[in-house]
Write a structure and sequence with these properties.
Layout lengths: L12 H9 L5 H19 L2 E4 L1 H16 L11 E5 L27 H8 L3 E6 L11 E2 L3 E2 L15 H8 L5 E6 L5 H7 L2 E4 L18 E6 L2 H11 L29 E4 L11 H16 L3 E4 L8 H16 L4 H4 L4 H11 L3 H22 L4 E5 L18 H5 L7 H4 L4 E8 L5 E7 L5 H14 L11
Parallel strand pairs: 2-3, 2-6, 9-10, 9-11
Antiparallel strand pairs: 1-3, 4-5, 6-8, 7-8, 7-12, 11-13, 12-13
């Protein structure tokens, strides 16, 4: 194939598919362009913790053959992607950001999301960095060190899908697969200026299920909403290993993507009724985003959903999950753990069965409340995170408790508890050049509607790329 002058590493997934289809570029050429960029930038970002160059080249060659024969498996055939280091991927170690996982074992299982992407012909670049066991909303760990933000290398990309988000933001592959248990896709997407999508719980099958329980979702980081819709069409396919997964949704999310927001009822809640400290620049940019939705024909109403801050529900369930992992480790393994994870496990140790029962009952009431609230609105609009990205620091830089873990991201975790689909969509930058994002939350199962609304906004305000990294 004859390549063009297009820098393939800067193309999104749908642009690559068009180039492959018209034989203006090949999957091998795209892989080579991305790998060259990873060689250059990953030492500074620490987005990838494992690279699968040989596997990726083999996959790219097979994809190139399929495109030459006009028989691609999907629109993601040949597209370079990354997978977070919490998700089992055959042929690649899944160390979960921890020294406690033995790298010298047989890695012969694909989690459902990895299996669907491989069946679609995607080229897996490797695994992206995560804090130990995905335990926090920053990406640092004793195993992999500190991951950094492409917009400003002194800042964190957020977490726990910080490696995935940093990779996509820096054009180290157009799609990064992450997980979201309290905001772990949406927080780094907001900090890194990506589009991040958390589907309805169970929409994307998982195996094994997260030790953090039914708050954990899987979804994509992308630099366009269309790429996220394309990815969702692949990864929402069924897998019998997940007994908690939803019935298969056979809709093509691309078909409704361009239907706009005219006539939609959007509840705009700048602080959810309880958030006291939203950065003024974040508040301003999100308010401007609400105005854009109005200009597009949506009916935007300033209203709070009417629940109290559920941070104690989230962190209690989270710390219990940490303790369940911790209690299964040997003394030697425990001695190797991140001190933030250890602190979480210690907090989880003191929760009684009655405590957890009461917490789950309160969670059920919150879920019911939001089902009723969303019966009156098509979407809920909030800030994605209450602050821009903060300094990238090593683990243990602050005492771990509920507030230091999640107090600065009060808009994300409620919708893990309620299991609703939600996205983080960039809506400008601060005066210092850091990304700002809003969050769109949809009714349960309305994943396509969230994507549709985000696409309408993107048509007015395209997603920005970070400035060129000068190394």
């Amino acid at each position: 194939m004859q390549s063009t002058n297009t820098d393939l590493a800067l193309c999104n997934a749908n642009e690559l598919a068009t180039l492959f289809r018209t034989l203006k570029a090949s999957p091998v050429e795209a892989l080579q362009a991305v790998e060259k960029r990873i060689d250059l930038l990953n030492p500074h970002l620490n987005a990838f913790c494992f690279r699968a160059s040989e596997i990726a080249l083999q996959q790219a060659k097979l994809s190139e053959y399929r495109w030459l024969k006009a028989t691609p498996f999907s629109d993601l055939d040949g597209v370079p992607i990354s997978i977070k280091d919490l998700i089992l991927t055959e042929g690649m170690p899944t160390l979960r950001g921890s020294f406690t996982v033995d790298v010298n074992q047989t890695w012969n299982v694909d989690a459902p999301i990895a299996a669907r992407l491989k069946e679609a012909g995607a080229v897996v670049l490797g695994k992206t960095s995560t804090p130990e066991f995905g335990c926090k909303a920053e990406t640092n760990s004793p195993l992999t060190g500190i991951t950094r933000n492409p917009w400003n290398l002194t800042k964190t990309p957020g977490g726990s899908s910080g490696g995935a988000s940093a990779a996509v933001s820096a054009n180290l592959g157009p799609i990064g697969i992450g997980t979201d248990g309290a905001g772990s896709i949406r927080i780094p997407a907001a900090f890194c200026g990506n589009f991040g999508f958390k589907p309805s719980f169970g929409r994307v099958p998982a195996y094994p299920l997260s030790p953090f329980g039914t708050v954990a979702h899987l979804g994509p980081h992308t630099m366009s909403v269309e790429d996220a819709a394309t990815t969702m069409n692949i990864i929402k396919k069924p897998d019998a290993r997940d007994w908690a997964s939803l019935p298969y949704d056979d809709k093509n999310y691309l078909r409704t993507l361009k239907e706009g927001v005219h006539g939609l009822k959007i509840a705009f809640s700048p602080n959810l009724g309880y958030v006291k400290n939203v950065d003024p620049e974040v508040a301003l940019k999100v308010a401007q985003a609400a105005k854009i939705f109005e200009s597009l024909g949506a009916h935007v109403e300033l209203v709070d959903p009417g629940f109290e801050d559920p941070i104690d529900i989230t962190t209690s369930l989270w710390f219990l999950g940490s303790f369940s992992i911790w209690s299964g480790l040997t003394k030697d393994q425990q001695s190797k753990c991140d001190q933030d994870f250890v602190a979480q496990a210690e907090l989880g140790k003191y929760l009684s069965a009655l405590d957890i029962q009461k917490i789950n009952l309160r969670r059920g009431m919150l879920g019911s409340h939001m089902r009723q609230f969303m019966s009156r609105y098509d979407l809920l609009l909030t800030p994605a995170v209450s602050i821009p990205a903060f300094d990238a620091l090593p683990s243990g830089h602050r005492k771990m408790d509920a507030n230091t873990m999640l107090g600065w991201t009060p808009f994300s975790y409620p919708f893990n508890l309620t299991q609703q689909p939600a996205c983080s969509m960039p809506c400008g930058n601060t005066n210092s050049g850091l990304p700002v994002a809003f969050q769109l939350v949809g009714p349960m199962f309305a994943d396509d509607l969230v994507l549709q609304a985000a696409y309408a906004f993107e048509e007015v305000m395209p997603i920005l790329r970070p400035p060129k990294l000068i190394m």
